[in-house]
Every structure is written in structure tokens, then in C-alpha cells.
Amino acid sequence: MSETERKRILAVGAHPDDIEFGCGAILLKEASLGSHIGLLVCSLGEAGSNGTPEVREQECREASSLLEASLTFLDCGGDSKIEASRANALLIAKEIRRLRPDVVLAPTDTVNQHPDHVAISNVTRDAARLARYGGLEELKAFSPHAVESLFYYAITPGAAREGGTPFLVDVSPFVSAWEALMNCHASQMKTRNYLELQVSNSRTLGLQMGVTHGQALWPNDPVVIDSLNSAPPGARLF
Fold it and tell me: Whole-model pTM?
């Protein structure tokens, strides 16, 4: 893959482990294909029951190192205090302009999950729009940038997006590396086996696809194809 063909992918999460659990295997696959991966984390998980902010930050840095991804922390109000505000949308829009991704990944907006996940889902969607508007004084430090695609990932199985059909990505060869990525967040495994929760869900998605493991992404917008000749197969396989 040439430098001009490599995608720049920015994954946004509310907490230090969200991205790795929600779309880590997809990012590992994309990195193996030569894509540039950036992580944008909007709190240090300071309101959580397990792990100090310092520990959570270090765990996140270890995971980003395994991914060979850039890592940026933003202060969007603090863990459990993140709001879907214009101010937070502008913070993320600045990072979109600075990093200039082709693809942005954000948590789903499913209501019955951590409120920070819902807030970051909504502000990332708004940020992707604001980033392309040339007349915003707050964003003048960087030139406008329009992302090609915005997709949503589910941080837990219960956060699957309500309505709409997801893309299913075959991540079968990357499960071991994904487990290592999730294991970086050891402080979060004390009360629940989140690793097995995610891997077992990926097995279910894989069964739908006819492979061993999959992960899902929900598109924000209708997806454009050149013709039916370029349309991917459906998971049902009829």
C-alpha cells in the first residue's frame, strides 16, 4: 500500500479502555494494512471504582504502544461529567483538523450505557461537521478538514446501535493481539471479565459471517458504492 493509499483513522473514546475493547481488533487489522492510527481519549477514568487516573493513563499508553498509534488525551469535563456540549465538540473538531483523519470511529449512542459514551458519540458526530466549516473563529488555528466516513463501535455487547445495519469486519487473525491489547487495562478486569465478554461477542458476530471472530461498525451515513459489482457480500450468505 502506497503512502497516498494509507488511511488515517482516528478512534475517539470517553475513557482510557473504550477504544481497545470496542474496536481494538479492527484497529489492529487496519494497522497491519498500513493505516495510520490515532487515539483520542477524553478523560482519565478518574470516577471509576478501579484504577487511579495515573494507572489508567499508563495502561492506555501501553495499549497505544502495542497498536503503534498516536495518543492524545483531552479534558472534556472529567469522567462521568462529559456533556454533549458545543465546547466539547469544538475540542474534538480541533483534533480532527490537526490530525486530518480519513475515517473517525466513535462509541455508539445507545442510551442504556455509560452516559459519557453517549455524550462522546454525539459530540464526535458534531465535531466531524464543525471541522469542515471554514468560518468558525474557534477553529482558525487549523485549516478545515472533511472526514470521509464516521463509524460507531459498541464498547460492550449491550451497546450495539439500535436500528441500522452494521458492517461486520473479519478480525479472526487478530484475536490474540486484541486480547493482549485489552489486557493492558488490567485494572478494569477486577469486577468483570470484560475481555471474555468482548471475545465471546466477537465469536457470535463471526458465526454470522462464516468466520471465527468479527467486530461491528455502524455507519453514520449511507455508504456509497460504485456499482453492484463492488458491493460486499451480506453476512446471511443465504
Answer: 0.95
